[in-house]
Amino acid sequence: MAQPKGTVVLAYSGGLDTSCILVWLKEQGYGVIAYLANIGQKEDFEAARKKALALGAKKVYIEDIRQEFVEEFIWPAVQANALYEDRYLLGTALARPCIARKLVEIAQKEGAQYVSHGATG
């Protein structure tokens, strides 16, 4: 186990990628706080919470941010006719800044030095 390097707030979904990065961060010596954002997806948040804790997260935040996601990101994108390749509305891409904003808020609240994500690629 590496020497303690500080605390990181991880955008966590409970899937393979974010679970692997949670374990890897722990192995690298970071304390990990997992953050799950409910933006309207169908997900078993309680199962994801249990998994994160079982993998070594020291704390798990789960926040319902559907209203602000719709009001501050989706609705302005619809008003601006924000399309991807002129074919379909942006969806997942719009969630990223909303989630990132919450990651930073939690990092500030917790005194964490880092934020991270575990997305593929």
UniProtKB/TrEMBL annotation:
EC number of this enzyme: 6.3.4.5
Ranges where the Arginosuccinate synthase-like N-terminal domain occurs: 8-121
Gene Ontology CC annotations of this record: cytoplasm
SUPFAM superfamilies named in the record: Adenine nucleotide alpha hydrolases-like
GO biological process, one term: argininosuccinate metabolic process
Matches recorded under Pfam families: Arginosuc_synth
InterPro entries: Arginosuc_syn_N (IPR048267), Arginosuc_synth (IPR001518), Arginosuc_synth_CS (IPR018223), Rossmann-like_a/b/a_fold (IPR014729)
GO molecular function, one term: argininosuccinate synthase activity
Superkingdom of origin: Eukaryota
Alphabetical UniProt keywords: Amino-acid biosynthesis, Arginine biosynthesis, ATP-binding, Ligase, Nucleotide-binding, Urea cycle
Enzyme class per UniProt: ligase
Cross-referenced PANTHER family: ARGININOSUCCINATE SYNTHASE
Protein name per the record: Argininosuccinate synthase
